[in-house]
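FORM 12-B: Structure-to-Sequence Request
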């Protein structure tokens, strides 16, 4: 009888270890996924801040009488990743000027648009 109890205890320990390892592996995968989400969110936020910065620079150039869309597409290195951006400036029928900044960072893209009145440049 004692031998059967030892065998049963060993089986219980093996089953408990298997269940515990499944739980640990699942938890570690969850943390890995969470960190990858945080990393991609951080890059998107940096790209948005960069796009907003370029949009504000374009507004200043318009106020100075310079067309910001005449600039070539540029590349900037921020926070260990490469950003490509382009500024477009279109005069609409209503007399408004639409500014569009496109920022590419890796396979992702962020686009910010705004409209500036015709009296803005004066």
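FORM 12-B RESPONSE
SEQUENCE OUT:
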């Amino acid at each position: 009888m004692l031998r059967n109890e030892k065998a049963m205890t060993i089986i219980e320990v093996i089953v408990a270890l298997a269940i515990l390892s499944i739980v640990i592996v699942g938890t570690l995968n969850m943390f890995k996924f969470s960190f990858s989400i945080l990393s991609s969110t951080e890059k998107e936020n940096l790209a948005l801040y960069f796009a907003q910065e370029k949009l504000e620079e374009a507004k200043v150039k318009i106020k100075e009488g310079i067309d910001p869309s005449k600039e070539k597409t540029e590349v900037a290195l921020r926070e260990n990743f490469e950003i490509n951006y382009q500024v477009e400036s279109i005069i609409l029928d209503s007399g408004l000027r639409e500014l569009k900044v496109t920022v590419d960072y890796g396979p992702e893209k962020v686009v910010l648009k705004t409209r500036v009145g015709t009296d803005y440049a004066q």
